[in-house]
Design brief:
heterodimer, A: alpha/beta, eight-stranded mixed β-sheet, four-stranded antiparallel β-sheet, 12 helices, 35% helix, globular, B: alpha/beta, Rossmann fold, 12 strands
């Protein structure tokens, strides 16, 4: 297999507090191939945004990477000094956040912000940077880009702002884009436009994407592979069709069943009783066992790691038991 | 059979003019937003009507007018044959208040953080003077909490001790306290995670079956709407553009906007399908387009659509406000 673009190995993120250390991410490992779109899905507090923040080096203190490594093209980026990381971020890894209003500076025109980003990362003069900025705005589907170049963020609608943010993320032709809930703040009709845009542009520019979202619909629409997170761990990962239609982990099964579907087939939604545990009360063994309808002894004692399941990889002792039975 | 809730030609205009001094000095005109503009619908007992639409389409304003949080600029709201506005103004049937309750979107903002769950759930009972004895009050609250899947011991806790889904259950318990017949639910699950959303939707469905509740369900999530509703009304820029029973609307949407919405939604069942790209954005409600407000985004728009505003007309039980459908320019469905 070719070298993956991004490789995360046994990543562990901790938050030291007065009442002890909280482990927010525990032994996360995954890879993203060049040009691939990996979805990361999970409920609030599962650690999906933290995973994204660790990769782009924007973990909020006191959160820190306690173990593991993050490699971009085989080169470690998790231990770079802040100045070096700043040039990686933007140049090689672009970022798109949930709220387009807070990720743009309200005092500067969007043109100035784009030119600044381009000139920070690429050796071009002001004129070339301006031309490139306008080309980027056009590419993201902003009408009358030449005039819009001189407008401030508040003069744009939410969908248009998110296009500007995508243009900013693409400005230096990064190899990887970390998009954290890029469509959550938008209306459905705009959401569809933005997903289509993200898909098209990343394909054209050959960039890989890590798409963090809680919306399975968006994942199904946009991703090649998907990782499902629960309580700071990846519980299942695989091709998007397999995870949606043939999930192995009981949590994924419950998650899929709890989503109301447009085909309207079910009278009653499948529900997972209970809630995700808090970080200070993660159960022993498999973190999902108190809510799992199929939990048995081993689940309470031992923590499962990802193992090959039917069509995906799942961290579940049922999978191991099935394999042994065969 | 007369419907339980009847809304006739409801409208709400918000004054969003700049302050008086700015108007004087900068010669700025007065400005008004027609948040809701001539909306009519009815809901029969035991049924669920869902209103869907994008941000700013006026669906929440309709909900708030129904429970008396906004006074309509124009129009009539009738509940069980009586004039609900008279009640909200304080002159009508006071007992009506008890029969209509609301569940809000954000369970973090809609519960008083300094009150215990007991205080929160008991407030409507005290307010309406339904239960006076403290012992009986505690029993009622316990029973209500158990109905929504919480325990009686939760009475002494504060809202911050609960997760989002549990808080929304507390809201539901509070709304049910006065034994209402009609619940207005404004995006009750959009702040929740999907697995928790499923729990709350299931509870709402169970309660409807047990108690014959009538719901007005406001949501932007069409998949949720498909799951909970009997009838669906689609709103665009303050107006109802289509109103039909659920199966008809989802199988054969008539209005181009409804079709666009249905096409736009990412759904897990429809991976990788080709879809018609959605054009444009919702226009500024301060300055809505002439004629049919959807015409700038509509692939079927013609001169008449730009000039003349379409009325909601009945086509075999489906109400659609579209010249194209009325003239037969837009075929039944694909």
């Amino acid at each position: 297999m070719a070298q993956p673009l991004l490789e995360v190995r046994h990543l562990r993120v901790e938050f030291p507090t007065r009442r002890g250390t909280l482990v927010a991410l525990d032994d996360i490992s995954f890879t993203i191939a060049p040009g691939e779109i990996l979805g990361v899905v999970g409920e609030s507090g599962a650690g999906k945004s933290l995973t994204g923040a660790s990769i782009i080096g924007l973990l909020e203190p006191p959160g820190r990477i306690a173990a593991g490594e993050i490699l971009l093209e085989g080169e470690r980026i998790d231990n770079l000094p802040p100045e070096r990381m700043r040039s990686v971020r933007g140049r090689r890894i672009g970022a798109i956040f949930q709220d387009p209003l807070t990720s743009l500076n309200p005092l500067y025109t969007v043109g100035r912000q784009l030119v600044e980003t381009i000139q920070t990362h690429l050796p071009v003069d002001a004129q070339q940077a301006r031309a490139r900025a306008i080309a980027l705005l056009k590419e993201t589907g902003i009408p009358a880009a030449e005039q819009r170049f001189d407008h401030h963020p508040h003069q744009f609608s939410g969908g248009m702002r998110q296009r500007v943010v995508i243009a900013l993320a693409l400005a230096a032709e990064p190899q990887l884009i970390v998009a954290d809930e890029p469509t959550t703040a938008l209306d459905v009709s705009i959401q569809a436009q933005i997903i289509a845009l993200l898909k098209r542009l990343t394909r054209q520019h050959g960039a890989a994407v890590m798409l963090v979202t809680h919306d399975m619909g968006v994942i199904a629409e946009a991703c090649d592979r998907v990782a499902v997170m629960y309580a700071g761990r990846i519980v299942e990962v695989g091709p998007v069709q397999e995870v949606i239609h043939h999930p192995s982990h009981p949590y994924t099964v419950g998650l899929m069943g709890s989503i109301p579907s447009m085909d309207g087939a079910h009278e009653r939604l499948l529900q997972i009783d209970g809630v995700m545990p808090r970080l200070n009360a993660i159960p022993n063994g498999c973190a999902f066992h108190p809510r799992c309808p199929r939990a048995f002894d081993r689940c309470r004692r031992e923590r499962p790691d990802l193992m090959p399941a039917a069509a995906t990889q799942a961290a579940c002792w049922l999978v191991a038991a099935e394999r042994e039975a065969r | 059979m007369t419907p339980l809730v009847e809304v006739i030609d409801l409208a709400k205009v918000f004054d969003v003019s700049p302050p008086w001094l700015n108007r004087l000095l900068e010669h700025k005109p007065r400005q008004a937003v027609h948040a809701v503009d001539g909306v009519s619908f009815s809901i029969h007992k035991g049924r669920t009507l869902a209103l869907v639409g994008e941000s700013g389409c006026g669906k929440s304003t309709v909900a708030r007018m129904l429970v008396g949080l906004h006074a309509p600029t124009q129009g009539t709201i009738r509940f069980d044959g009586r004039d609900a506005q008279a009640t909200w103004r304080g002159s009508g049937d006071r007992a009506l208040r008890r029969r209509i309750q609301m569940i809000f979107q954000d369970p973090y903002a809609s519960l008083n953080p300094r009150w215990t769950v007991q205080d929160i759930v008991a407030e409507p009972l005290r307010e309406h003077d339904l239960v006076r004895d403290a012992r009986a009050l505690a029993d009622r609250v316990s029973a209500l909490l158990q109905q929504v899947g919480l325990s009686a011991a939760d009475r002494a806790k504060f809202p911050h001790q609960f997760s989002g889904g549990q808080r929304q259950r507390i809201s539901i318990a509070r709304a049910l306290a006065t034994q209402p017949e009609f619940l207005v639910c404004d995006e009750p699950t959009s702040a929740l995670d999907v697995s928790v959303q499923a729990q709350v939707l299931n509870i709402m469905k169970d309660l409807q079956r047990e108690r014959g509740l009538t719901y007005l369900f406001i949501s932007h999530n069409l998949a949720v709407v498909r799951h909970v509703s009997d009838e669906v009304g689609v709103m665009y820029l303050g107006r109802l553009v289509e109103w039909a029973d659920k199966d008809t609307l989802f199988k054969t949407p008539r209005h181009p906007y409804t079709r666009m919405l249905l096409d736009a939604i990412p759904d897990i069942a429809m991976t990788g399908r080709a879809r018609t790209p959605v054009q444009g954005e919702v226009p500024n409600p301060l300055n809505p387009p002439s004629g049919c407000s959807f015409h700038p985004r509509c692939p079927h728009a013609n001169e008449r659509c730009k000039r003349e505003r379409p009325a909601l007309l009945n086509f075999q039980g489906i109400q659609v406000a579209c010249h194209g459908v009325a003239e037969g320019r837009i075929a039944g469905t694909a």
